[in-house]
């Protein structure tokens, strides 16, 4: 089986020694080509090339950003049956998507399970989300955000530039600053005509759990699953008491659909949003920039994943 391993050597937990161990294990069983990313977007280019060179599987060793880029590269192949299988070995900080698939956080053990999935031809078809906004056209695996969470992620990326590392505590600090002091909580600035509402921010979920707090899965949208389309939630009221209730519900694993001041839509194939001012957009934890119009849709059975 021809396989491409895309290694993000800049990922949070990926080291040269770890990469060597994983490459040796994979090379003993696969006809393996190894490529290292050099910049943002490189993993997408490598996956696109692999898809058009008829590789059987593309494996990611990196975080959610690397996996997202590879998924977008594979989607450039129009024939779903010709798209290489997607395999994932966790090497980032959150590793949300691969944990959703049931893989362990330990990369070496995950490599063993990937090889076992290949031996069993254990493949799961998954749908993807897609967002189009201005000059952006991007697929996402587990979530996209328009507004506050994307703004927080943009600050996290700035924090990570250089030698500083990301952490859950840093994310919580930036989230509190965004919600309590940076966001205008007097008037919602995002209009969602499909739901007939105005909201302060919106999350579009393709897969749950869609984030983690350390080892703990946060699953405030339990209805979102592999066999459903998109789930949307959007706060329409953001008083201090609403923020506290929202945070408690997310951390406690409650269902956001039960909260007053939060509008949800489940199993929807598309949703359109419009912001009054340029607003941050993110997919799978990567901030893409500020836009004012965003259209989200669901693409069923888009990729085949080793699971």
Set down the secondary structure blueprint.
Blueprint: E1 2-7, H1 16-27, E2 31-36, H2 42-52, E3 57-62, H3 64-74, E4 85-90, H4 96-100, H5 107-120, E5 123-133, E6 136-140, E7 143-146, H6 148-160, H7 168-182, E8 190-192, E9 197-199, E10 202-205, E11 211-213, E12 216-218, E13 230-235, H8 240-252, E14 262-268, E15 270-283, E16 286-306
Parallel strand pairs: 1-2, 1-3, 3-4
Antiparallel strand pairs: 5-6, 5-16, 7-10, 7-15, 8-9, 8-15, 10-13, 11-12, 13-14, 15-16
Helix pairs in contact: 1-5, 2-3, 6-7
Give a structural overview:
- The protein is of the alpha+beta class and about 300 residues long.
- The chain has two domains: about 1-120, Rossmann fold (3-Layer(aba) Sandwich); about 130-300, Tumour Suppressor Smad4, CATH 2.60.200.
- Helix content is about 30%, strand content about 35%.
- The chain is built from eight helices and 16 strands.
- It has helices spanning about 15-25, 40-50, 65-75, 95-100, 105-120, 150-160, 170-180, 240-250, and strands at about 1-5, 30-35, 55-60, 85-90, 125-135, 135-140, 145, 190, 195-200, 200-205, 210-215, 215-220, 230-235, 260-270, 270-285, 285-305.
- The strands form three sheets. Strands 5, 6, 7, 8, 9, 10, 13, 14, 15 and 16 form a ten-stranded antiparallel sheet that branches.
- α1 runs parallel beside α5, α2 runs parallel beside α3 (about 65-75) and α6 packs across α7 (about 170-180).
- The two termini are about 15 Å apart.
- The model has no long low-confidence stretch (mean pLDDT about 90).
